[in-house]
């Protein structure tokens, strides 16, 4: 199942294809008063295709299936240090390209061009973890419906492998549509989030 911009290598600056030098970053669109070209001199606006960034309205809305998660304070109205974006890192190996998704708060998601079919198993696999010094915001990701209903998720606090600031860890989770008849016929949404304080990182999102 295609995932647009699955490796986070693609973005535009003022409508033109752009790249990030090592150590530089850009943000998804931020609140009024904060630019989104990060520490670059790229012209705005910065657009990151495929993915839509969100902030939680309040920390209580950020949770995983084991209890309330931490690291979910909403992004400030003019705080360019929070939110989500792309970062060119060279500290840790990634399987494709150089950019990673970073999350200081909130989450990103993508509605796929696929609807849930009967008697079908769906799997999402990612590389999560190390991407910026010792930051380790964990991971919390999986499948949702367009209205935000959780279908299947995994985090390092709910059965997934330990999150690491030292390297990217391959993580996957699956669901069988026979166990979720209520979502058959609905579009699939993938969401990438974090489940603890610190910056979280993702790369190479694959769905099949």
Question: What distinguishing features does this structure have?
Answer:
208 residues; six-stranded antiparallel β-sheet; globular
Describe this entry's structure for a reader:
The chain is an all-beta fold and 208 residues long. It has strands at 12-13, 16-17, 25-27, 46-47, 52-54, 63-64, 67-68, 84-88, 99-103, 107-115, 121-129, 140-144, 150-155, 168-176, 187-193, 200-207. A six-stranded antiparallel sheet has the order 3-8-9-16-11-14, with no helix packed on it. Strand 12 (140-144) and strand 13 (150-155) form a beta hairpin. The N and C termini lie close together (5 Å). The model is unreliable at 63-71 and 76-81 (pLDDT under 50).
The residue-averaged pLDDT reads 83
Q: Please provide the ordered H/E string of secondary-structure elements.
A: EEEEEEEEEEEEEEEE
Any low-confidence stretches, pLDDT <50, length ≥5? 63-71, 76-81
General shape: globular
Tell me the fraction of residues in β-strands, as a range: 35-45%
Q: Please tally the helical runs, counting DSSP H or I stretches of 4 or more residues.
A: 0
Cα end-to-end separation: 5 Å
Rounded to the nearest angstrom, the radius of gyration is: 16 Å
Question: Layout of helices and strands, plus pairs?
Answer:
Layout: E1 12-13, E2 16-17, E3 25-27, E4 46-47, E5 52-54, E6 63-64, E7 67-68, E8 84-88, E9 99-103, E10 107-115, E11 121-129, E12 140-144, E13 150-155, E14 168-176, E15 187-193, E16 200-207
Antiparallel strand pairs: 1-2, 1-4, 3-8, 5-10, 6-7, 8-9, 9-16, 10-15, 11-14, 11-16, 12-13, 12-15
């Amino acid at each position: 199942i295609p995932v647009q911009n699955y490796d986070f290598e693609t973005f535009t600056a003022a409508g033109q294809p752009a790249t990030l030098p090592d150590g530089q970053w850009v943000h998804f669109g931020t609140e009024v008063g904060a630019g989104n070209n990060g520490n670059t001199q790229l012209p705005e606006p910065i657009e990151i295709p495929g993915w839509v960034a969100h902030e939680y309205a309040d920390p209580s809305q950020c949770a995983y299936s084991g209890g309330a998660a931490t690291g979910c304070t909403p992004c400030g109205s003019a705080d360019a240090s929070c939110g989500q974006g792309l970062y060119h890192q060279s500290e840790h190996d990634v399987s494709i390209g150089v950019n990673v998704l970073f999350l200081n708060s909130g989450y990103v998601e993508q509605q796929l061009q696929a609807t849930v079919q009967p008697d079908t198993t769906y799997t999402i696999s990612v590389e999560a973890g190390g991407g910026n010094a010792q930051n380790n915001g964990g991971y919390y990701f999986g499948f949702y419906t367009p209205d935000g209903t959780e279908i299947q998720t995994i985090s390092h606090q709910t059965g997934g492998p330990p999150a690491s600031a030292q390297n990217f860890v391959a993580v996957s989770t699956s669901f069988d549509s026979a166990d979720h008849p209520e979502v058959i016929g609905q579009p699939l949404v993938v969401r990438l989030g974090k489940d603890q304080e610190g910056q979280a990182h993702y790369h190479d999102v694959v769905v099949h």
